[in-house]
Amino acid sequence: MAIERTLSIIKPDAVAKNVIGQIISRFEGAGLKVIAGRLVHLSRGEAERFYGVHAERPFFKDLVDFMVSGPVFVQVLEGEGAIAKNRELMGATDPKKAEPGTIRADFAESIDANAVHGSDAPETAAVEIAFFFPECNVYSR
Ligand code: UDP
């Protein structure tokens, strides 16, 4: 399987719960490497741009409100099949439907405050990584 990069966000609910390290451990335990990372408090404009694909969805305003409610930890994960592997570790969007042992099953409260984001395809991963990290701040190893 190809070595891929994906964007992961630890959302405000999980940062507030102080479980950044526990979530990163899941990625490392599954063989993914953190090759870039930082805390950032998104502005409304940034959150709206990042989730622009959902602009017409009924939950868009609540999603933006949530994403600007506190700092988030943004990171680039690299490894074999990183995009699908990350989404498997995350679990379903709705934590009530997430497989036991997934990040959302263990750390998320609801479909809107659901602990993590992960890119869903190579094209979106490239766009989302570039949104937060210039190539000079990414340390492939
Ligand atoms: N979301 C929500 N209500 C919904 C569906 C999605 O609040 O009914 C939020 C949720 O935070 C989700 C994000 O919008 O993580 C993006 O939705 P998507 O369907 O892309 O889910 P994901 O890829 O994050 O699992």
TrEMBL record:
<feature type="binding site">
    <location>
        <position position="114"/>
    </location>
    <ligand>
        <name>ATP</name>
    </ligand>
</feature>
<dbReference type="InterPro" id="IPR023005">
    <property type="entry name" value="Nucleoside_diP_kinase_AS"/>
</dbReference>
<dbReference type="Pfam" id="PF00334">
    <property type="entry name" value="NDK"/>
</dbReference>
<feature type="binding site">
    <location>
        <position position="59"/>
    </location>
    <ligand>
        <name>ATP</name>
    </ligand>
</feature>
<dbReference type="InterPro" id="IPR001564">
    <property type="entry name" value="Nucleoside_diP_kinase"/>
</dbReference>
<comment type="function">
    <text>Major role in the synthesis of nucleoside triphosphates other than ATP. The ATP gamma phosphate is transferred to the NDP beta phosphate via a ping-pong mechanism, using a phosphorylated active-site intermediate.</text>
</comment>
<feature type="active site" description="Pros-phosphohistidine intermediate">
    <location>
        <position position="117"/>
    </location>
</feature>
<keyword id="KW-0546">Nucleotide metabolism</keyword>
<keyword id="KW-0418">Kinase</keyword>
<keyword id="KW-0067">ATP-binding</keyword>
<keyword id="KW-0597">Phosphoprotein</keyword>
<protein>
    <recommendedName>
        <fullName>Nucleoside diphosphate kinase</fullName>
        <ecNumber>2.7.4.6</ecNumber>
    </recommendedName>
</protein>
<keyword id="KW-0547">Nucleotide-binding</keyword>
<feature type="binding site">
    <location>
        <position position="11"/>
    </location>
    <ligand>
        <name>ATP</name>
    </ligand>
</feature>
<keyword id="KW-0460">Magnesium</keyword>
<keyword id="KW-0808">Transferase</keyword>
<comment type="similarity">
    <text>Belongs to the NDK family.</text>
</comment>
<dbReference type="InterPro" id="IPR034907">
    <property type="entry name" value="NDK-like_dom"/>
</dbReference>
<dbReference type="GO" id="GO:0004550">
    <property type="term" value="F:nucleoside diphosphate kinase activity"/>
</dbReference>
<comment type="subunit">
    <text>Homotetramer.</text>
</comment>
<keyword id="KW-0963">Cytoplasm</keyword>
<keyword id="KW-0479">Metal-binding</keyword>
<dbReference type="InterPro" id="IPR036850">
    <property type="entry name" value="NDK-like_dom_sf"/>
</dbReference>
<feature type="binding site">
    <location>
        <position position="87"/>
    </location>
    <ligand>
        <name>ATP</name>
    </ligand>
</feature>
<feature type="binding site">
    <location>
        <position position="104"/>
    </location>
    <ligand>
        <name>ATP</name>
    </ligand>
</feature>
<feature type="binding site">
    <location>
        <position position="93"/>
    </location>
    <ligand>
        <name>ATP</name>
    </ligand>
</feature>
<feature type="domain" description="Nucleoside diphosphate kinase-like">
    <location>
        <begin position="3"/>
        <end position="140"/>
    </location>
</feature>
